[in-house]
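Please go through the sequence and fold tokens given here and tell me how the chain folds. Record follows.
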Amino acid sequence: MSGHSKWATIKHKKGAKDIRRGQLFAKLIRAVEVAARQGGGDPAGNAALAQAVEKAKASSVPNDNIDRAIRRGSGEAGGADYEEIWYEGYAPGGVALYVQVLTDNRNRAASAVRSTFSRLGGSLGEPGSVAYLFESKGYLLVAGDEDQVMLAALDAGAEDVRPSGDQWEVITAPAELSRVRRALEEGGLPVESAEATYLPVTLLPLGEEAARKVLRLVDLLEELDDVQTVYGNFDISDEVMAAVAG
């Protein structure tokens, strides 16, 4: 996961060079709408909605857009009937990819995901072929002193704290994500990102050539309008990541 999270952070900083701002906003708004439809329009009683709203705000989505998405999702205004679908497959080199889709057109989404896998040397698998390699977790990327991060995170209920370059990956149960984030921020520790995610059970280290191929496939999948997120079980060292990002 560390390689994947570092790549996501690099892409976020590069901004529109990788994903058009409007497309990113549309994905974040779609996630808010679906979360409101599934669990109600009150973020205080809907953890998934609260996290979707937090993520949208962190990417500077206007509050009016977020409010309209919540109203659509909770039935106060018209909206598309989005369906969540998970696709499972392999990138070149045997890296497992777990692809989350929110779509109002199942056939369009399936065709686009399948052709992207095939075009980039990957293969789409059957349901259940890679899902067992991932587990649902809360994930935070935090800067700060090791002892301070450890103390604040673990006291708040985090499961693990791992080094990631000059930052720290904090792993939580999904339900504890918001509480751990608040504890870190109240302790004066900058949180680079915080999200409910799927972490791989085991990691597959990649060299530079393999990393370029895998990240190219991940990027193109995430550029598809219906794809929300792509999770992978790859790990990329700082040295390889620097070469790829450069």
In short: DSSP finds nine helices and ten strands in the chain. The mean pLDDT is 87.
